[in-house]
Amino acid sequence: MSNDHIGRRIRQLRKVRQLSVRQLADRAAVSVSALEKYESGDRNPPPGVIAQLARALKVGPDRITGQPYVNGAESEEQAQAVIPELRRILLTYDNPDDLVVAARPLPVLAAEMDHVAQMRQDGKYVPMGPLLPGLLTELTHVALSTSGRDQQQAYWWLARGYRATNSLAHKLGYHDLSLTAVERVRWAADRSGDPLMQVTAAYLKAGAMVRMGTFSSARRVLEALEGEIERLAPEHSMTDAQLALHGAVLLKLAILEARDGNGDRARQRLDEARQAAALLRADTTHYEMSFGPTNVRIHEVAALIDSGDAEQALARLREWGTEQDRDEWELPAGIVAERASHHHIDVAAARLAEGDRTGAHRDLMEARRLSPNHVRYHPTVRSTAATLVRLDRSSDDSLAGFARWAGA
After folding, report:
1. Which pTM value belongs to this model?
2. Is 34 contained in some domain?
3. Is the pLDDT of residue 15 over 90?
4. Is residue 227 part of a domain?
5. Residue 29 counted as domain residue
6. DSSP letter at 66?
7. What is the pLDDT of residues 83-136, one digit of tens each?
8. Which pLDDT score is estimated for 76?
9. Are 289 and 200 in contact (CB under 8 A)?
10. Residue 284, beta-bridge partner list
11. Quick check: 58 and 17 in contact, CB under 8 A?
12. Rounded to whole angstroms, how far apart are CA atoms 377 and 345?
């Protein structure tokens, strides 16, 4: 197991900046005792706190999480090998290299991109990566060489390809490439003739802002999207796709407010999302946005965890479990694998914060079962697994094996 954990990186960066524990705590709006626990590795900071610490230390969040992760486990799978090619393609997005063979027909490319998009939602990043460069290149040539409806459709599918690129780069920890891909989504969406794809592009940019801790800017973007979606709906009668995007925006706002310390606003946004989900009645994936009653609950738990209330998050799971006649709420079947996996990663971190190491290990294993690629490259997984191993007194081979597999 690596000794280079999140807490050690925070401490090293603090010393480089010549800050005392109290000075950094004040700048990041966290307590001194919490910061001391983060630095010692006894507790892991939630994503919102990582963003606050990164801003206070004047670094990107990746400097704290240690991304991108390049060690023996990753190099064996060649997961990083596609990154240089994607950089080249995103750089030459409006002036691509010549094709050796003519691009395939748009319906063929669209079908392949639809498959890639599903892989993205399932967190299958390793097999998805090699498909992206060629597919993006062909779609770019079709988009630049056609006109009318065919051109708009090519840009629409190209926007989805850039979204998949954004996800791959973000999950592997190449945040600069991820931000470039987000801008390319917007470029293609603006040419697609689809206002909801444009909303999707702006939503992705706001999500990147939230991850970077630029909450006021992200809030303005998301609140503007609320108004834009309502404007697109005639007489306030939203289609299912509009409801899904509106709900996704509300959930992103809830997480933003939780990370920004505005608990009342977070609860208000969750209530609004719950009302939107009730109109859908079922979980949906319009425009690759996972939204519905289940995802509202997932975000309610995540918002509590991000605000530092792991105890209440776990209590909410027990409360909902009574509806299923279970000890705790279990996700229904059919939820997008990455979304379900992310929920278990969050819950594992909450259990660890509350001292339930066995439960934390169990949730990490369930997350891996659902989406192994997603789990393997997730910074919360690495920090949670590393802490579990440090605290383990029984020399649990299963736990140690998981930590090695995750690169912790």
Report:
1. 0.88
2. yes
3. no
4. no
5. yes
6. T
7. 999 999 999 999 998 998 999 999 999 999 999 999 999 989 888 999 999 999
8. 43
9. yes
10. 291
11. yes
12. 12
